[in-house]
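Technical annex, item 7. During the second reporting period the consortium partners agreed on a shared format for inverse folding records so that results from different sites could be compared directly. Each record opens with the tokenized structure and is followed by the designed sequence. A conforming record, contributed by the partner at site C, is shown below for reference.
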């Protein structure tokens, strides 16, 4: 009876819906599951999630069974502290309304539906569930109902549990998957889609862009998308399967160019004023990497119509689409007019630019120190100056570490800027 009482530790198997906490590990002593005939209880409790558009036969079977055994029944609906997603698409209010429709209060006055928030720790979740139960029913014996793969192995509260036998299994995941392919001709369906969209927080959409340099470090490879005239950096969206943004950069580069690329080096990050997201709540933020081209012939793929090598010295802002011009300016600032001849040189240039900024802040701070009573004025100004100093010192430390790691030898590049 998946979606009612089933649970997979660690959340790795979403074909069996998770009930109660999102466990990291067992933290308490598990209550032994008992035979229902051994216990006489006044209150039956069903911790569940019910992530389907209507209660399926498995849902109805377990709820009716518990209602037949107890005059008072509590359904504790698990609520995750995140916006709805494919695994948990329905918020608490929607599921409560669904259950009230299936079990009207006038016919089932003893049925209570309450939310129970997911927790990292099983013991804390168990305590919260016990507290919630006693808030609703201060007196009386309590019995919790679960199944073989349910919350039972993670519950360490004070009430006994019963493991119900399962003869028929239902897949809430499969039901949701089938529903995702159906478009229904009704105002309620369209209203539901609008409602679901507004349950999402405004999102930052992470992407990466690549400055692909040729072997001689004299040219850069740019891409042009269909129906566009100007060029852009190769790149794309971060995928949850990527181990890091550097991994995203290498994957997107290979997918769109068929080139073997190595050694992504951070250049800059910024919000991108993409025309597709203009005026919308969700916005794109990208990270620009410089990467080395190893071998291969550029072949446009994915959503790229054309790839073209450009001489570095001949590039201008107008070469790029508007949303990538700021990235190009950052690349120019870090690398200079002439692309450095080696990867360590690229790193040295980036480090040098960062050090210039850091040293300016430090010297400004030192200059203000003797006159702090006048210069600071308010405490907020002092706090801001202190914060800038800490960030500057951190940047200097990071620069030194980056430089040290980037060199194959022990020699240091000459990165002492004039401030």
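Designed sequence (site C submission):
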């Amino acid at each position: 009876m998946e979606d009612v009482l089933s649970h997979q530790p660690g959340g790795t198997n979403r074909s069996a819906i998770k009930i109660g906490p999102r466990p990291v590990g067992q933290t308490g002593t598990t209550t032994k599951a008992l035979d229902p005939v051994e216990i006489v209880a006044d209150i039956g409790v069903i911790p569940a999630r019910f992530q389907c558009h209507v209660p399926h036969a498995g849902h109805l079977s377990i709820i009716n069974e518990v209602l037949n055994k107890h005059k008072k029944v509590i359904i504790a609906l698990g609520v995750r502290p995140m916006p709805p997603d494919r695994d948990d698409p329905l918020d608490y209010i929607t599921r409560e309304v669904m259950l009230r429709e299936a079990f009207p209060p006038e016919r089932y006055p003893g049925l209570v539906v309450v939310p129970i928030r997911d927790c990292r720790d099983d013991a804390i979740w168990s305590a919260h569930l016990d507290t919630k139960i006693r808030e609703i029913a201060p007196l009386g014996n309590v019995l919790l109902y679960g199944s073989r793969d349910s919350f039972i192995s993670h519950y360490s509260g004070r009430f006994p549990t019963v493991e119900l036998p399962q003869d028929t299994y239902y897949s809430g995941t499969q039901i949701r998957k089938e529903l995702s392919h159906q478009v229904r001709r009704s105002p309620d369906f369209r209203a539901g889609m609008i409602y679901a969209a507004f349950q999402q927080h405004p999102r930052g959409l992470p992407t990466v862009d690549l400055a692909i340099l040729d072997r001689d470090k004299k040219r850069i490879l740019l891409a042009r998308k269909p129906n566009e005239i100007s060029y852009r950096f190769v790149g794309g969206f971060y995928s949850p399967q990527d181990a890091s943004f550097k991994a995203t950069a290498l994957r997107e580069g290979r997918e769109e160019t068929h080139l073997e690329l190595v050694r992504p080096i951070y250049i800059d990050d910024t919000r991108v004023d993409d025309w597709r997201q203009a005026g919308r709540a969700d916005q794109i933020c990208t990270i620009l990497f410089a990467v080395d081209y190893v071998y291969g012939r550029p072949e446009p793929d994915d959503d790229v119509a054309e790839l073209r090598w450009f001489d570095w010295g001949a590039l201008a802002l107008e070469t790029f689409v508007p949303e990538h011009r700021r990235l190009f300016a950052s690349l120019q600032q870090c690398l200079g007019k002439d692309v450095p001849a080696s990867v360590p040189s690229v790193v040295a240039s980036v480090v040098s630019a960062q050090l210039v900024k850091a040293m300016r802040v430090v010297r400004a701070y030192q200059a203000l120190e003797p006159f702090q009573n006048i210069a600071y004025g308010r405490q907020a100004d002092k706090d801001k100056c202190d914060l800038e100093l800490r960030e500057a010192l951190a940047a200097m430390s990071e620069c030194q570490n980056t430089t040290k790691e980037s060199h194959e030898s022990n020699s240091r590049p000459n990165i002492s800027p004039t401030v």
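Residues 53 and 98 are 8 Å apart (CA to CA). The chain has three domains: 9-179, 204-328, 344-406. All partners now use this format for quarterly exchanges.
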